[in-house]
Amino acid sequence: MALISCEDTAFAYDRGVVCQHLNFSVSEGDCLCILGENGAGKSTLVKGLLGLKAPCSGKITLGDGLRQNEIGYLPQQTAAQRDFPASVFEVALSGRLSQRGLRPFYSKEDKQITLRHLGQLGILPLKERCYRELSGGQQQRVLLARALCAAQKLLLLDEPASGLDPVAVRELYQLIASVHQEQGMGIIMVSHDVKSAVGLASHILHLGGQQLFFGPVEEYSNTPLGQRFLQ
């Protein structure tokens, strides 16, 4: 069963439709890479998948028991976020906010889950460090841990390697691949680092104001669109 799917979905702003004819799905164990030029509709689709923007036609469906607050989200990082004055543990633990319900405090389980993900990503020794004192690559690991703390079955990563140096980019994609293999979690990833992302993906969704391609990586690589974009 699909975790999330779009059925003839379209999104619009006051200036008109920005992305349309979306028909795709992501199941547990899939890794979908969303590609496209600037203005292709990638950011708008991310907002739709997170429930922050309603489609103007069609629908987005959550399946297999997935709820909106169980999608782990790693957003594009801003300058303000990089200067956030909190400890690594506190930032990662905040990913459990959506799971707290009416409880006013974090539970022992919340803290154990957070420590486990920090260890999984190799940053447990940094848990007491101030987040803003870390390198860009370390900060992205913390934000990935935060997303994992929120995620039950699906991760949504928006330009996770943006602004990182080549070594940090390679390490981050290796971590994402490891998480995918170990946990079998569904992943949706927007990326401009096409070759690295495609190397990790099982499926490609290519946007250009509408859906230009959706299917397995192997099929995409053999299309004129894929060959042009992967050069």
SSE inventory with pairings:
Blueprint: E1 2-13, E2 16-27, E3 31-35, H1 42-49, E4 57-62, E5 71-74, H2 79-82, H3 88-93, H4 108-120, H5 136-150, E6 154-158, H6 166-183, E7 186-190, H7 194-200, E8 203-207, E9 211-216, H8 217-221, H9 224-229
Quickly list its features:
6-stranded mixed β-sheet; 231 residues; single chain; 9 strands; alpha/beta; 3-stranded antiparallel β-sheet; 35% helix
Radius of gyration: 18 Å
Shape: globular
> What is the H/E string?
EEEHEEHHHHEHEHEEHH
Determine the mean pLDDT: 90
Indicate the percent of residues in helices: 25-40%
Contiguous helical run count:
9
Main sheet attributes: strand count, strand direction, barrel closure: 6 strands, mixed
The order of strands across the largest sheet is 5-6-7-3-8-9
Give me the oligomer status.
single chain
Number of strands: 9
Q: Would you mind describing this structure in some detail?
A:
- Helix content is 35%, strand content 26%.
- The chain has 231 residues and is an alpha/beta fold.
- The strands form 2 sheets. Strands 5-6-7-3-8-9 form a 6-stranded mixed β-sheet, with helices on both faces. The protein has a 3-stranded antiparallel β-sheet with strand order 2-1-4, covered by helices on one side.
- A hairpin with a 3-residue loop joins strand 8 (203-207) and strand 9 (211-216).
- The radius of gyration is 18 Å and the shape is globular.
